[in-house]
Amino acid sequence: MSIILRRTLAVFRKDLRSELRTRYTLNAILLFVLTTVMMIAFATRGEIVNDGVASGLLWVIMFFSAMTGLARAFVAEEERGTSLLLRLSSPPAAVFFGKLLYNVLMTLLLNFAGITLFFIFVGGVAVGSPGLFLLVIALASLATAASTTLISAIIARSRSRGALFPVLSFPIMLPLVLPGVELTLLALGGADMAQAQNNLQLMVSYLVVLTTVSWLLFDFVWKE
Amino acid sequence: MSSLLMLLGFTIGIILGNFPSVLRPRPAWWRWAVVILTSLTIVLALWPPLGGTFNSVVLMGRSYEKQAVPLKARIDHSTKSYNAERDEFSVVMRDFSSEPREFPVVFTGREPAEISSAKVVIVNVRLGDSDTDFRGESVVAVDPSVTIGFVPALAERIRNVYFHVPMAWIGFLAYFLTMMYSVRYLRKRQPSDDIKAAAAAGLGTAFTVLATITGMVWAKFNWGAFWSWDPRQTSIFVLLMIYGAYFALRGALSDDDDKRARLSAVYSIFGFVSAIFLVYIIPRIMEGLHPGAAKSGDMGPLVDGSIDPIVLSLYTLSLMSFTLIYFWLYSITVRSRFVAMELDEAQFS
């Protein structure tokens, strides 16, 4: 087990290092997030954004930043032609969890960047219970990464990659989006943990099931 | 008990659907049996009259529109009387609820000719000025052999239960089979399993589309709008999106048969996990219009057995016959794709 853990961290470090070396993708995606938020800010300019609209808009930002940011994980390997080397050097479980870890970090970064920008540029929205809000966003980031990592591995092996990724991801992400929007609304309105419990349980269970199933299925996508 | 009956009907449908073998042409007796069963289902879904109780007359009578309700009741011929002064005919009727109640029902004019020799009648009854004042309007049926229980919230619209619910169940059965064949493909790598999985997904989508359409019509007349993003409407919409994505993925991978089979199998298993959450969990956790939603206080009348026994038996019959139709279509689809695959191989070799 420890060798898988070591290899997982190695894959994670490799991805992180190759990203930080150029920062080309990261910058492009952060600019994309900024564009999304600006689009929303201009669209709602002069309007009163109530909690219901705000929670929906936050999820729009999170969905679109995930769709641009997370598709790269395996496509980059195919484009650089390094997937064969990765296949030789690391067991599939390590590759999967390494990429998953990298995607989790990436989603957290993008989501918190997007949300910060949202609160700066779309005024008049206050968070009623910040603890719950942070928990929901963190959970949403984890679950988003869990639901899209396997799909990014699938689309890396196909043509028309860009268009397929959101098409394949959206229906898988929807069981997260439905309770997620409700939770965000509750958090903005200042609800306590007890009111959010049902939806939180739903999200956590979906997260666990998705991660397990992705891990079980990853071998079939990764191996030739 | 009632869910046992439905399960039995479903199981018989699945077993008979696969008998003798789903990969062989269907025997003539099998085809005739399915045609007869399905015709019977459609006739029994549309033809029998509704029969309510005094309770439902009172319930509908208290509503704003004071609607008439078809009342199914036994006539007590010894109590017939005609009041010449007010030109009214009255007779005591005994309804068929679990605790039968007796009330006189008053008709304008002389005794309607149809009921003079009948034991059991279905008459349209409207509530008069008080909760015991029942006004007979017209005779719907005399000594009916089959009647469907009257549900105040549904009335005639209950007939859709024989079409809408089986379509949704069979659609999900088909998606389940897609998942099973996908798992088997990943274990054994037989191209036939991929063909079966894709055929089941296609038919599942067809049945789910039918469930959506029948549901939309039902929603329009029961809830007032074709679409209102009830959790179950959301989930069936996303279910269709999952399998739309499945076919989009298959299309994008058309250059390599093994890769297409492998990746689409992975996606269909992954998508089925999402489907379980969408079909079984989310509609029960969230509040909505469908029976069985959170805070509606029940599991849904079909599942917890609070439904009229005749409706339940007819539902079981329709579930069975539409399951048989599914396997018939499935058999044709799979066999034609096998032939296409063999032709392809013959061309290239």
Walk me through the topology.
The complex is a heterodimer of chains A (224) and B (349).
Chain A: H1 2-22, H2 24-43, H3 51-69, H4 72-80, H5 83-89, H6 92-121, H7 130-156, H8 161-189, H9 193-222
Helix pairs in contact in A: 1-6, 2-3, 2-6, 3-6, 3-8, 4-7, 6-7, 6-9, 7-8, 7-9, 8-9
Chain B: H1 2-17, H2 28-46, E1 50-51, H3 54-62, E2 69-83, E3 88-95, E4 102-108, E5 120-127, E6 134-142, E7 148-149, H4 161-188, H5 191-222, H6 231-252, H7 257-285, H8 301-304, H9 309-348
Parallel strand pairs in B: 1-7, 4-6
Antiparallel strand pairs in B: 2-3, 2-5, 3-4, 5-6
Helix pairs in contact in B: 1-9, 2-9, 4-5, 4-7, 4-9, 5-6, 5-9, 6-7
Tell me the domain tally of chain B.
Answer: 2
Summarize model confidence as the mean pLDDT of chain B. Answer: 87
SS elements, strand count of chain A? 0
Distance between the termini of chain B: 57 Å
Secondary-structure element sequence of chain A? Answer: HHHHHHHHH
Count of the separate structural domains of chain A: 1
Which geometry of chain A do the CA atoms define? Answer: globular
Q: Helix and strand succession of chain B?
A: HHEHEEEEEEHHHHHH
The proportion of strand residues of chain A reads under 5%
- Number of E-state strands of chain B: 7
Protein structure class of chain B? alpha/beta
Radius of gyration of chain A: 18 Å
Describe the model:
The complex is a heterodimer of chains A (224) and B (349). With 224 residues, chain A is mainly α. Chain A has helices at 2-22, 24-43, 51-69, 72-80, 83-89, 92-121, 130-156, 161-189, 193-222. Chain A has one domain (2-222). Chain A contains nine helices and no strands. The longest helix of chain A has 30 residues, at 92-121. Chain A is globular and about 55 Å long. Chain A starts with a helix and ends with a helix. The model of chain A has no long low-confidence stretch (mean pLDDT 89). With 349 residues, chain B is an alpha/beta fold. In chain B, strands 2-3-4-6-5 form a five-stranded mixed beta barrel. In chain B, strand 3 and strand 4 (102-108) form a beta hairpin. The interface between A and B is medium-sized, with 29 and 31 residues.
